[in-house]
């Protein structure tokens, strides 16, 4: 790690790094506390577009982690920032929850099904066949297709749920139009997070638990990448990938002294 500039800013995935199945990973509270005590700029990243940063902050506090809303960066916020940079004060037909609609409203977007500039697909607890049909017809009529994240399934207490990537595939099959995914593993997610905290890639670390999203995304954005083994990845799986993290740690607890 000495070959790079000292780490001044930190980006961290949420699920599998800071929390696991609704409970804080041991050491996560100390890691966040040290970031805040030392004044290090940081963001917690998530591909989940359902919740607003305030919603997530309250949920994390209930789990024992004190992370303010301004330190949370979602795929919904990244999508809103991207669209605002591409077509300021545009219009969109949105399939999603408050996290996505709030972010787009705050970016100055009009939400409408009348000749919108974009169809924006996010996560929702209940995908409506009527809404999906409307999205298909709008895309057929020329609306550009954007999706917050490519995750095909999401977890629930009952088992897997179809997520944004799966519904996007349905719409693509019907229209022949591929969406532009903004969330991880698109390095756009990292770049927008870096811009949010005025950070530079060469002095920023990305902590994640997935090689195929967090680590490849951080690598392509030029960040120092740290894989923790408290999520879905096991150490013996790393060599299956054609790229490697800069550093592997058992858990977030092992990174406290690096802050």
In short:
Helices cover 33% and strands 20% of the residues. It has helices at residues 28-37, 53-62, 75-86, 98-106, 129-140, 164-175, 187-196, 211-220; strands at 9-13, 19-20, 23-24, 41-46, 72-74, 91-95, 110-111, 118-121, 144-147, 153-154, 161-162, 180-181, 204-208, 224-228, 247-249. A hairpin with a 6-residue loop joins strand 10 (153-154) and strand 11.
Which value, in Å, is the CA radius of gyration? 18 Å
Average pLDDT score: 95
Which stretches of 5+ consecutive residues score pLDDT under 50?
Answer: none
3D shape: globular
Main-sheet strand order equals 5-4-1-13-14-15
Which percent range fits the helix content?
Answer: 25-40%
The total of helices stands at 8
How many DSSP E strands? 15
Please summarize the sheet with the most strands. 6 strands, parallel
| Binned strand content | 15-25%
* Cα distance spanning the termini: 13 Å
Helix and strand pattern: EEEHEHEHEHEEHEEEHEHEHEE
Oligomer: single chain
Strand pairing plus helix content: what structural class? alpha/beta
